[in-house]
């Protein structure tokens, strides 16, 4: 799922692209309390959100609070340091962790940006004087209520049965056996990327590297013992949340394979005691018609009429059929008068630079 929300900045980037030169990579700034693998995984184990695992991609820097009980993962783009989500780890240390990142940005003369934060910690960002913009809504399915029984679930039940009648079956490959299927998964991923004319994104979602996938169990869809689709499973240690990260399939997979995959993973999560299934973001969704914010008015207009850029409504509709609960997501940022440039920095970071934004190859 493509998370890059800042479509409103794209017009500015496209107009300026002839004169725009990507800034060279900034040399890593000095960060005290540099992480070890043990520190990182300890914080991930404390987390109640599967987004914590994005820290294992290797495409972000990590800054810990002084106790090393929480961290912030961030990327560098233009004049901004962009944190991916809220801090990860022990919630008691989130406030101090946010302050540390903010001061790190100030020391390096960069704008402070937090991308895809939730409403529970807004007071921490207010404490350091950041501004906010709603960027969409986030969907979670409460698994105790998830069922294929009853009239309301009839469309999902039919979708599930239709694919299963084709001889498809779901299986979870435990993490220790994933090396045995890595070559098959890479073949499927390459085929999927080529078919979608896409390139790996990273930052706000997983990307295919063998090193990354070796951290997780992998859900697969098989027919006649051949893997037709896969997705690595992200699971919090406290069983608060489970999600699918990469979701890729072969060209000859039948229509409805992804619906079937989601249903299978939700059933698996429910059977194994997980509370919620993370369906991820619907960018620009849930912006009210009567909003007073200038930027929210623009977002609302793009959501309603921006299909040329991205199928915003279609993504929201796809997730809605699983009957999730929706929560707002925000971007928090310093430099309130510099928002267009901040949105450009975020967009370029998520899309992999100006070439990734203008050309998918």
Shape: globular
Residue fraction in strands: 15-25%
Low-confidence regions? 1-28, 294-311, 354-361
Helix content: 25-40%
Please characterize this protein's 3D structure.
By secondary structure, the protein is of the alpha+beta class. It has 2 domains: 7-137 and 279-317 and 326-358, Aminopeptidase (3-Layer(aba) Sandwich), CATH 3.40.630; 141-275, Aminopeptidase (3-Layer(aba) Sandwich). Helix content is 33%, strand content 23%. It contains 12 helices and 13 strands. Strands 1, 2, 3, 4, 5, 6, 7, 8, 9, 10, 11, 12 and 13 form a 13-stranded mixed sheet that branches. Helix 5 crosses helix 8 (257-271). The model is unreliable at 1-28, 294-311 and 354-361 (pLDDT under 50).
């Amino acid at each position: 799922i493509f998370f890059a929300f800042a479509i409103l900045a794209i017009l500015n980037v496209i107009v300026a692209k002839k004169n725009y030169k990507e800034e060279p990579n900034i040399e890593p700034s000095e960060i005290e309390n540099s992480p070890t693998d043990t520190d990182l995984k300890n914080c991930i184990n404390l987390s109640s959100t599967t987004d914590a695992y994005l820290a294992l991609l290797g495409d972000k820097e990590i800054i810990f609070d002084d106790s090393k009980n929480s961290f912030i993962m961030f990327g560098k783009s233009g004049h901004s340091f962009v944190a991916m989500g809220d801090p990860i780890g022990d919630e008691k240390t989130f406030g101090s962790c946010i302050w540390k990142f903010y001061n790190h940005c100030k020391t390096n003369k960069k704008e402070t940006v937090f991308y895809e934060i939730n409403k529970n910690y807004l007071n921490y960002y207010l404490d350091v004087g950041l501004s906010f913009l709603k960027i969409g809504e986030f969907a979670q399915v409460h698994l105790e209520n998830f069922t294929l029984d009853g009239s309301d679930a009839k469309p999902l039940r039919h979708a599930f049965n239709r694919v299963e009648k084709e001889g498809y079956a779901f299986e979870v490959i435990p993490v220790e056996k994933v090396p045995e299927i890595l070559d098959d998964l890479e073949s499927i991923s390459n085929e999927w990327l080529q078919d979608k004319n896409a390139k790996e994104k990273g930052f706000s979602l997983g990307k295919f590297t063998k090193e990354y996938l070796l951290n997780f169990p992998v859900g697969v869809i098989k027919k006649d013992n051949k893997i037709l689709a896969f997705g690595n499973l992200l699971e919090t240690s406290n069983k608060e949340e489970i999600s699918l990260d990469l979701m890729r399939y072969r060209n000859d997979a039948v229509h409805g394979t992804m619906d079937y995959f989601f249903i299978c993973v939700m059933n698996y999560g429910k059977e194994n005691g997980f509370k919620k299934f993370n369906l991820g973001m619907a960018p620009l969704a849930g912006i009210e018609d009567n909003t007073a914010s200038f930027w929210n008015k623009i977002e609302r207009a793009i959501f309603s009429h921006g299909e040329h850029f991205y199928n915003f409504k279609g993504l929201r509709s796809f997730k809605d059929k699983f009957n999730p609960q929706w929560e707002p997501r925000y971007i928090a940022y310093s430099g309130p008068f510099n928002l267009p440039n901040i949105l450009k920095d975020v967009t370029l970071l998520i899309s992999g630079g100006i070439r990734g934004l203008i050309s998918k190859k």
